[in-house]
Amino acid sequence: MTIHDPDEANTNEFDPLVPRAIDLPTTLPAGGVIDPAVGDIAKIFAAPGNPADWPAWRDDLAAWRLEARERLEYSGAAYEFAHARWTRAAYSVALTWLWDERLFDHENQRFTVDAFLEATADLGGFDGIVLWHAYPVIGIDDRNQYDFYRDVPGIVELIAALHDRGLKVFIDYNPWDTGTRRAANDDAGELALIVGELGVDGVFLDTMKEGDAALIRALQWASPPQVLEGESRVPNQRIEDHHLSWAQWFADSDAPGVMRAHWYERRHMMHSTRRWNHDHSAELQSAWMNGTGILVWDTVFGVWVGWNPRDKSTLRRALRVQRAANELLVEGEWTPLSDAVPEAIAAGVYVSRWQNDDLTLFTIVNRGTTDFAGAMIDEAAFDAIGGELFDVTSGTALAEPRTLVPARGIAGILAVHGPRPVWLDALLAEAAADERATDASFPARTNVRRPAPRTALGAPAARVVEVEAGQYELPLTYRRRETGVYQGAPYVEEWKPLAPRLHDDRSELVTVSVGRVAVAATEVTAAEFAAFRGVGDGSSAPAVSVTLADARAYAASVGARLPTEFEWQLAATQPGFTRGEPRVWNWTESEHSDGITRFVMLKGGSDHVSLGSDWYVDGGVRPPEFSLKYLLAGLGVEASTSIGFRLAWDLE
User: Fold this and answer.
1) Given the DSSP bridges, would you call strands 104-105 and 110-111 parallel, antiparallel or unpaired?
2) Dihedral angle, C-alpha 78, 80, 84, 85, nearest 10 °
């Protein structure tokens, strides 16, 4: 039986810049009575537009939570497990490609944890990291998702180094990986093994809202035991055993609403994210008003979508308060949308309150596009609380309950009506030293071809195909994937691109200039490459399982180089150009980098095809105009049984 999931509905007929119906906040009826089929999976419960309705709305929220917990016989016991208590304070998690140039030095082929943390420090530091590994290169050959972790030399040491620096580590599980070689165990059993081999803390469930019973049981009883984080709106039934979830593509109401899963269980951590956004102010404000976290994903499968200075500044302001006041945010009394004065509300400024015996924190957001510095909180609320006042987002003491709330930003006012918390002075000093940024422009990066192909004037092989110098207008075809092609993101500010706007076939024309070049008529053979390595054995089949660096080294040894992707394409249309058997993709001299991700263009296709999912890399033999953007791994992981190479020589 096929179960329809509205999150995966066709998006081609909708405006991609407008949230879908499933993304919109849910209206909670009066009394909090709502069909569980809707209420148990709602993303956000919308706040009423009329402030006069907010007290009744809060009562409805409380009634809904009580009914849902009783109906589902919720215990919350899993949140007391010692191995999982860290999740309630995991406010910032990075999703990072394992071979990100900040984390991996491609020149020296080594991981660089401290360089990564230094390069991302302006994001406020991370509490956890998802080490993304296989997609979008899995499917190039028969390696499965577990191989793409196990085949990485030094990965255990990398994870230990991240632990030493205070980060929790997630690995990624791809349930759609069914067409590569099968592991010795089913997925639940294999995951339970690999988390122990690597020593990680959690498993991110790619494309899944929840794991099944076998998966949950296997990971809870693994050594070490794991926590699970689902991708988007985990249902109430699974909050019992999923400690975290993504708040991915959650549209909020004008007045900030309440995230259903976190309202249901305050210890359940959520990470807001909209992966293609250049403006993160909306998700930052939702997280701040809900006491939840952020997924920082500044490079989406090789595509740069970096954060602007304003949003980085907002994130830092939020994180230092959330981490310091975690106990208050998790266990204090949370009163959504309270205490704001009408003048502030009219300007798009909203306030929520978090309170215990000693402290009251007012979280404030400004939906407007200009700074707000007027009265914002009802003074009667402060008169009832008393104590010292501090703006904990800017690090200043206050004489009255007002402060500046930046445009599209946040502020936090703390009232201390008991002993000063031990963390307050350090927090204020750090906040005061962190100058607020206002620049909301996108920090664009350009992919640069590197290195430029060197001149190779050695004697060409006996069989070559000559390409004449000139300027050519060439067709370029590819399958649109989240990797993009050469420059820019395939989607910007969009709401969940899905087929047919994702994985569709695309074509364009590119204008290139090439010199006169001879391209080898066929690939370097296994026997030729074996002789180069001093092994002296091999066949007439194409040499495969060769890294890009090794292919370059072989070429240099015979006075040649690799052809560029355009030279390869032009040569492939000439008589005499042949393919060895089995047919394999060819490396080309097309390495690009934007300082974060390296990639190359592969040409030709291969006999190998991984079936069963559109998420696999392209397989099959391809026409000359087809290019595959292949993200460049390291430490030999980039080599494949489906990739070979041929040579090229410059002709005078």
Assistant:
1) antiparallel
2) 150
Round the average pLDDT of the chain to a whole number and report it: 96
pLDDT digits (tens, 9 = 90+) for 211-255: 999 999 999 999 999 999 999 899 999 999 999 999 999 999 999
3-state secondary structure of 633: coil
Q: Which residues, other chains included, contact 181 with Cβ-Cβ below 8 Å and sequence gap of 6+?
A: 142, 143, 144, 147
* 528 Cβ neighbours under 8 A, 6+ residues apart: 538, 543, 554
Taking Cα atoms as reference points, which of 304, 300, 279 lies closest to residue 487? 304
d(CA 509, CA 494): 25
Cβ-Cβ contacts under 8 Å for 70 (sequence gap 6 or more) = none
Q: Is 173 helix (H, G, I), strand (E, B) or coil?
A: strand
- CB-based contact 522:578 (threshold 8 Å): yes
End-to-end CA distance of the chain: 65
Say how many CA atoms lie within 13 Å of 558 toward its Cβ. 22
pLDDT-derived band at 554 (thresholds 50, 70, 90) equals very high
* 503 backbone dihedrals φ, ψ, rounded to 5°: 75, 15
* Res 3 pLDDT > 50: no
pLDDT digits over 317-358, tens only?
Answer: 999 999 999 999 999 999 999 999 999 999 999 999 999 999
Between CA 234 and CA 245 the distance in angstroms is 6
pLDDT at 1 over 60: no
| Cβ neighbour number for residue 333 with a 10 Å cutoff | 10
The torsion region of residue 647 among left (phi > 0), alpha (psi -120 to 50) and beta comes to beta
In angstroms, the CA 241 to CA 215 distance is 11
For residues 331 and 390, the answer to whether their CB atoms sit within 8 Å is no
| Residue 42: exposure state from Cβ atoms within 10 A (0-12, 13-18, ≥19) | buried
Give pLDDT tens digits for 497-522: 988 889 999 999 999 999 999 999 99
Output DSSP code: residue 42.
-
DSSP secondary-structure letter at 405? B
Domain boundaries, the chain: 57-297, 326-440, 448-650
Report whether 217 contacts 191 (CB < 8 A).
no
The highest-level CATH class for domain 57-297 is alpha beta
Query: What is the phi/psi pair of residue 142, to 5°?
Result: -90, 5
Going from the C-alpha of 313 to that of each of 19, 287, 316, 368, 516, the distances in angstroms are 26, 15, 5, 17, 52
What CA–CA distances, in Å, run from 353 to 79, 159, 252, 347, 423?
24, 38, 19, 19, 20
Question: For the purposes of burial, counting CB atoms within 10 Å of the CB of 164, is it exposed (0-12), middle (13-18) or buried (19 or more)?
Answer: exposed
For 13, counting Cβ atoms within 10 Å of its Cβ (0-12 exposed, 13-18 middle, 19+ buried), the class is exposed
CA distances from 188 to 148, 610, 619 (A): 17, 22, 28
CA distances from 207 to 160, 243, 610 (A): 27, 17, 19
CATH no. for 326-440: 2.60.40.1180
The reported pLDDT for the residue numbered 621 is 98
Q: Which residues lie closer than 8 Å to 202 by C-beta, 6 or more apart?
A: 87, 128, 168, 169, 170, 171, 226, 227, 228, 229, 243, 244
Report d(CA 433, CA 419) in Å as an integer: 24
Measuring CA to CA, which residue among 264, 317, 328 is closest to residue 294?
Answer: 317
Is the CB of residue 26 less than 8 Å from the CB of residue 42? yes
Prediction pTM value: 0.96
